[in-house]
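Table S4 entry, Dissimilatory-type sulfite reductase subunit alpha.
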Amino acid sequence: MADIKKHDTPMVDELKSGPWPSFVDDIYSYAEKHQKQACFDLMGQLELSYKHKETHWKHGGIVGVFGYGGGVIGRYSDQQDKFPAIWAFHTIRVNQPASKWYHSSALRKLCDMWDHRGSGMLNTHGSTGDLVLLGTVTEQLEPIFYDLTHQMNMDLGGSGSNLRTPSCCVGKARCEWSCIDTQALTYDLTMTYQDELHRPAFPYKFKFKISGCPNDCVAAIARADLSIIGTWIDDIRIDQEAVRAYVGGELKPNAGAHSDRDWGPFDIQKEVIDLCPTQCMYWDEKEKKLYINNKECNRCMHCINVMPEALRPGTDTGATILMGAKAPILEGAQLSTVIVPFMRLEPPYDNLKELIEKTWDFWMENGKNRERLGELIQRVGLNRFIVDVLGLKPIPQHVREPRSNPYVFWKEEEVEGGWQRDVAEFRKRHPA
């Protein structure tokens, strides 16, 4: 084995002095144990970046595996003479299983392969969703892809202007609130849209994120171009005996999460009723009974989270479909907008796929380069997108707030000849 060259990294080492575990500790301990020159060179280049106050990574063109346009993010050092072990430091995204369930043997195989063919460093899991293999050279890309697909039954995830790897919460596997089978839906969408996932053809990235209930544990409403949120359309189920047990102190609210309550005994009025965003709940102190006006409920989940043994989602379940969330890249950050308040989701999910494909067709034809779906909706207008593109009927759930100006706008074809017909009809009914 060649001699390992270590670098002097005083500024990087400062990161080890904080109260929390540091990535610097992790990388150095791994590098020492496995004698990985790439890890030492990585820390050396990071020190240089701190000193120069600029990055020393560059993108030297497209790099990937044969037949795929995504999954590999090319990265090269512009300090190759100083740090030759990271002349290339490509990142590989691995398509995670639904809900990120792994068998330990699969992870061991993956780690052994990556120790052999890459830097040994990986990320499970970051904000991209995928399992990310950090740092390898161009010559190893095809062997890595072969090992992943043929030895481990895994695939590359999405990168670039394509469908990114669909992501979901644990769903019905572990969560009693899940209204849809998030894992089945994620797997189906992943397998259906393989071409969109691996071969970039969109104006920019597109993300599916799926949460089984309105608690939205994967933050789909904040991060996904198409957010799928499990919900119910019937009434919240109420166990009145359990409600009384919460009020009487026999059951701990929030499933006992705040066992050190220092604000006194549970107060259903202050902690549930008064915090309901639509004020659709009423506690009758005399009857000791909880009433819910379910037509006004907006499924915020607060009451269910506070009193989980007393309240449960309804049994007539489906999903709310929202579109347009994004981080602040070109325009500011935005949350997704309700497009379909309630959609039933059963395999093969044809109703959802029809909506997805209508959206993609319009976006690919009209979207500007690096324009996310939410920005396109803002540009063309929500009303045009809902009515003309998706063919949906406008409903109150699409309105964020009342109109703030008195003008009414009409389509040209509605105006053309319209007022003449109205005048003629008026004169017919009211002859001079």
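The chain has three domains: 10-151, 167-227+321-398, 237-312.
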